[in-house]
Amino acid sequence: MRWPADVDLVSPDRIPQYVTGFGVALLFVVIAEITVLLAVGSPAVTDGQFLVGVVTTIPFLVGIAFGGRWLRTTDLTPSRYPRIVGWILGSLISFLLINLALMAVMPPDSTGLVVGWIRWSVSLGAGVGLLVGCLEGRAIERTLAAERASLRAEHLAEQREYLDYLNGILRHEVLNTATIINGYASLLREEAATTDQQRRWAEIVIDESEEMSTVIDDVRILLQSTDDEVQLEGVDLSRLLTDEVRKLEHKWGPVDVETSIPSGVSVRADPLVARVFGNLLSNAVEHNDAATPRVSIAVDPGPDTVRIEIADNGPGISDSALETLFERTQSRGSSHGIGLYLVRQLVTRYDGAVDVVETGPDGTTFAVELPAASESQSTASSNARSTSPP
Where is the composition biased (Polar residues) (predicted)? Predict the structure, then answer.
């Protein structure tokens, strides 16, 4: 018989199969041993020592057979298997040598008992070796996992410290610079610009400085959203959306807004959730080429989740942009920037979902689903608002 060329008989991945096969083979040895003794009419088959040996062998054989199956399903890596085999062979040989010495000192009365004693020694040694090897392997894996977790924690702490440092630079240096640019550009537009073209250039500088400030603020929010400890609470979604609509109209001027927002709807989130809807509403207007931007907001509260749909009458999203819409690798040239990546990160933080349910030349509809706040969370949120200072 020739094995297929792609079958590696010495691969560690095949060791569990060999262990199971070894256990099954020993079981067949016991069955064959009893069959032969019965066939020849040997009195050893009814000997008390022989029967005790058979009874005490069976659990070890079953353990070896199922031990191989367990190895295939456990989280032990195959690199641990050869050492387990070493324990099996070492323990088997040790037990066998000890019992051969005992047989030399106390010879059994018959050949059947000799065979049974050897079979018992092999089974017991292999079973004990498999148990010790598995326990050692698990201990090693747990130790390595703890070390890896410790290294990851140190690395994450270093990364967090570095990101906080970069955030500080962005906010204290770049943001201050953007504010100064914005201020001087506003002065140029109001006092120094003498033509429409000059005023337009000044407005471009102002818009870009404001965009820079928005991106820096989004980075800060992203850093907050990566905190390990996330404490979610009941957030009044009805009030939050009403505030965001007011901000939208204040920032972008005339906007046709239609709302269907029931009162008293709360979701399980944190204050950063406002950024989700602030970004979605801003995108609905900022990238809208209609003469009068139109935005509709519909809230559908359910027992477990709250669904919020935000639709606009913009030009829609191209198929190429749609594929990577929520990815952080997008460039600003995609016209959506970091905002939608931030939206996805925050919604994921709340165990929710966000997606584009419809897009085309008549507009785009985003759907956000967030966990509904429990009654106790909603009550706590309401009490906090009522006791907060004006």
Answer: 374-390
Are the beta carbons of 345 and 324 closer than 8 angstroms? no
The model's pTM: 0.50
Residue-wise pLDDT for 340-374, tens only, equals 888 998 899 899 999 999 999 889 999 999 999 87
Inter-residue contact 328 to 341 (CB < 8 Å): yes
- Average confidence (pLDDT) over 71-97: 87
SS3 (DSSP) at 355: strand
CA 348 to chain centre: 11
Per DSSP, the three-state class of 171 is helix
Model pLDDT, residue 375: 66
* The CATH classification of domain 231-387, taken from the options 3.40.109.10, 3.40.50.720, 3.40.50.1010, 3.30.565.10: 3.30.565.10
Question: What was the pLDDT predicted at 258?
Answer: 92
DSSP letter at 232? -
Long-range contacts from 382-386, C-beta under 8 angstroms, 24+ separation? 382/234, 382/236, 385/236, 385/239
Buried b (16+ CB within 10 A) or exposed e, 24-38: eebbebbeebbeebe
3-class SS of residue 109: coil
Q: Are strands 256-260 and 266-269 parallel, antiparallel or unpaired?
A: unpaired
Task: Locate the domains of the chain by residue range.
Answer: 1-229, 231-387
